[in-house]
Amino acid sequence: MAHLALKDYPGRYALTNELHARPFPELSAPCRALHLAIKPEGDAAGRDREKDRAHLAELLDRYGAPHLPPGANHYSGPLGRGTLKWEMHAEFVTYTLFLDGVSRVPFSGEMSTVFPEDWLAAMPGKVVTSALVRVVTADEEEVERLIAEDFPQWFVLESAAVARVVDAEAVIAGDFRIDKHGHERFAVLASPHVGRRRLGRIVQRVLEIETYKAMSLLTLPVARHVAMTVGRLDRELAEIVASMAAATGHEAQTLQRLLQLSAEVEHLVATSAFRFGAAGAYDALVNQRIRVLREERVSGRQLFSEFMMRRFDPAMRTCRSAEERLGDLSGRAERAANLLRTRVDVANQAQNVEVLNAMNKRAAMQLRLQETVEGLSVVAISYYALSLAGHLFAPVAEALHVSEPLLFAILTLPVVALVWFMVRRIRQKLGHGSE
Q: I want to staple 75 with a disulfide (CB 3.0 to 4.6 A). Which of 37, 68, 160, 191 is the partner?
C-alpha cells in the first residue's frame, strides 16, 4: 500500500466528485415538471449567493426536507409529493420540481399551488423563464393522434417545434411562447420502452435548452443599445477623422473630442463585455443540447434546430454583430487618437525648436551686450584707476624729474591690463558659481 504515503493535491476529491454531483433525474411517464430560472437584475454574477441558498433553505424548512451542505451549488431531494432539483449558476438559479402524474387540464398553471405564494414573492431575483413540461407515454399511433388533436390546443402551431429524439425514445414539442399563466409549455411523448434515466435526461435537456435560450436573449436589448450608440459614435469619429485630414490647425481641440469619444466607447465596452461573453457561452450550450438529442422529423413539423436557426440565431447574430462593431470602433478610435497625438507631439516639438532658437538668439545678444558692457566697464574703471595711480606715483615721478603726461603714459598700459584681468577673473568666478 505504498500509494497511501502519497499526498493528494488540494481539492482532488472535491473536483472529482463535482463531475458526479448533478445527476439527471429518473422519471417515469406520466409525470410533469415545473421549472423556474431566477436571476437578479444588474450584476447577477457578483450577487450575494448566500441569499439564494437561504431562500432554498426556507422552502426546504416548510416541507421538513434536509438542508443542502454549506457552500453547495446544487441540491436534489424530496419535496412534498415531488422531487426538487436546485442548481446555482453563474448568473441565475433554477428550481425544477418533478411530480408523478399529469394534471387533468394540461398546462393548467399550478406553480403557485406547489410553491408557496409568499415564498415565490420573496424570491431574490426575477423570473427569466418559467416552464411546464407534460410527460406522457405514447406509442406511434398515440403520437400521431396527440399531434393532430391535442397539439393545436396546447401550442401555437405556427411556431411549434416537434422532433423525435434519442433514437426514437421520445417525441418532444414546444412553441417557446408564454401562455396566459406566464409559463412556456413543453410536451414529452415517451415511448413505452424508454428507461427512467433516459427519460430524465431528455426532460432535463429540454429544460436546459429553454433556460439557456432565455439567458442568451437577455443580451439582445444590450446589443440593440450598443448598435444604436455605435452608429452615433461612428458618425462622430468620421467627422473627427475628416477634420484631421483637413489639417485645420485645431489639433488640440480635435484630440480632446477624440479622447472624449474614446472614453465613451471604452465605457460601452466595459458595460457590455460580460453580457456579450455570456451570450456566446449560452448560445453554444443551446446548440450543444440540441445536438445531443439527435433530432428526427415528425409529421413534417419543424425541428428544434430549425426553430433556433430561424428565430434564435438571428438574435445571436445581432449580438455578435454589435460586439464586433463595438470592437472595430474601439480599435479605429484608438488608431485615430494615436495618429492625432503623434501630430500634436510633432507640432509641439516644432514649437519647442522655435522657442529654443529664439532663446539661443536672445542669449547670443545678451552675451554680446555683456561683452560690450564689460569693455566699457574696463575703460571706466581703468580711467579712475589711472587717476588714482597718477596721484600715488606723482611724488616718485617728481623725484625722478618725470613729467605728469609721461607718468600717465607709462602707467596707462599696466593699469588697463590689470583692470581687464581682474574683471575677467571676477566674471569667471561668477560663472562657475552659477553652475
A: 68
Residue 104 CA to residue 99 CA, distance in Å, equals 14
User: What angle do helix axes 219-246 and 313-399 make, rounded to 10 degrees?
Assistant: 40
Of residues 60 and 11, more confidence is placed in 60
CA distance 352 to 289: 65
Dihedral angle over CA of 41, 46, 51, 57, nearest 10: 110
What's the CA gap between 6 and 145, in Å, rounded? Answer: 63
Cβ atoms of residues 39 and 97 within 8 Å: no
**Exposed, middle or buried: residue 69 (CB in 10 Å: 0-12, 13-18, 19+)?**
exposed
To which H or E segment does residue 328 belong?
Answer: helix 313-399
Residue (of 190, 212, 213) closest to 201 by Cα position: 190
Encode pLDDT of 401-427 as tens digits.
667 777 667 767 787 777 777 777 776
CB-count exposure of residue 225 (10 Å: 0-12, 13-18, 19+): middle
C-alpha count within 13 angstroms, C-beta hemisphere, residue 197: 1
| Assigned C-alpha cell, 144 | 400521431
Residue 367 in this model has a pLDDT that exceeds 90: no
Q: Please, what is the Cα angle at 303 between 300 and 309, to 5 degrees?
A: 125
As a residue count, the chain comes to 435
DSSP element (H, E) containing 153? helix 151-154
Q: Partners of 172 in the beta sheet?
A: 163, 188
Mention every residue, 6+ apart, whose C-beta is less than 8 A from residue 346.
none
- What are the start-end ranges of the H helices in 173-218? 196-217
Position 350 scores a pLDDT of 72
> Nearest CA to 93 among 48, 63, 150?
48
Q: Which residue has the cell 399551488?
A: 113
Integer Cα distance of 433 and 435 in angstroms: 5
Rg (CA), the chain: 45
Preceding amide of 30 cis, omega within 30: yes
